[in-house]
């Protein structure tokens, strides 16, 4: 839901012509599936589409379910899986299964707040939905897709205990509030997305909790053709991107759309960023400067930080000389073993655009903890990570 939240808000908030919409969200997945839990697809009553759940396998059926939800104002859960018995059944050809929540949202009456908040609201830490169940009474068509007995979803802008508890009073009965709030708060702190099942007498109440944390930080050192290509290639990955170079003549922000451009010595910028908490264990640093007086200080700084990836461009000879200089600068062998240099996977890349792809391919492999990379056709394991159905 959070990935298309702004688009849904925009349609509901149009002053002259607000548009009802429905959002389909993957709330659980089993086996090999193309997209993770939390992925959403927006369908507007005006025919607008945004997002994708499976890359095409189930989109047609989801589209019809969303149109039905817009007409009835009723939420529902739909299941999609591979069927060997019925070759024409809607399902995932990859063999996995999905459970999809369909939620309608209607423009709120004048003077009331949208169920998705306002466009000026801060980015939420989580979107929490009470999943519909067969035992639920059929809801009346109400603004925002709320059931007749009250709202079915809340936005959270923080993970504080009191804030979570206050928000969940709209979704949970009093006897489940304490336990539910504690478990939702724990999911937010750990940035987990999934379904939380709470026992309620002979049945259960299921909450789908979708968490959002700030994007991972990619720092690109070097305002040159390779830095420009890497910034461009990395933009679709949803990263926070910073381009850092100490030379004012090369750091025109318009040359690096999608990146924060910083004019500073990279090692000083990196140290300051770490000090203020702008780097974490998911962060990545790519040094593309080809200049020892820049490379050595920034790599020495980066290799002392707890970050996911440190790479540097250069020939094998320059890599040898650079490692020698780093040892002389006090970088120990354990830290030096984390250096990805020469940077990137061996894809035969030559042009800046090709090198950018090789670098990002290596970053993805490191994040997935793949020590070796081979063509998918030569493997035998699942193509997609196994995903738990509930939290």
TrEMBL record:
Residues 106-125 are annotated as: Disordered. It comes from the Bacteria. Gene3D superfamilies: NAD(P)-binding Rossmann-like Domain (3.40.50.720). Residues 19-81 form the XdhC- CoxI domain. Residues 218-363 form the XdhC Rossmann domain. Pfam families: XdhC_C, XdhC_CoxI. This is Xanthine dehydrogenase. The lineage of its organism: Bacteria, Bacillati, Actinomycetota, Actinomycetes, Micrococcales.
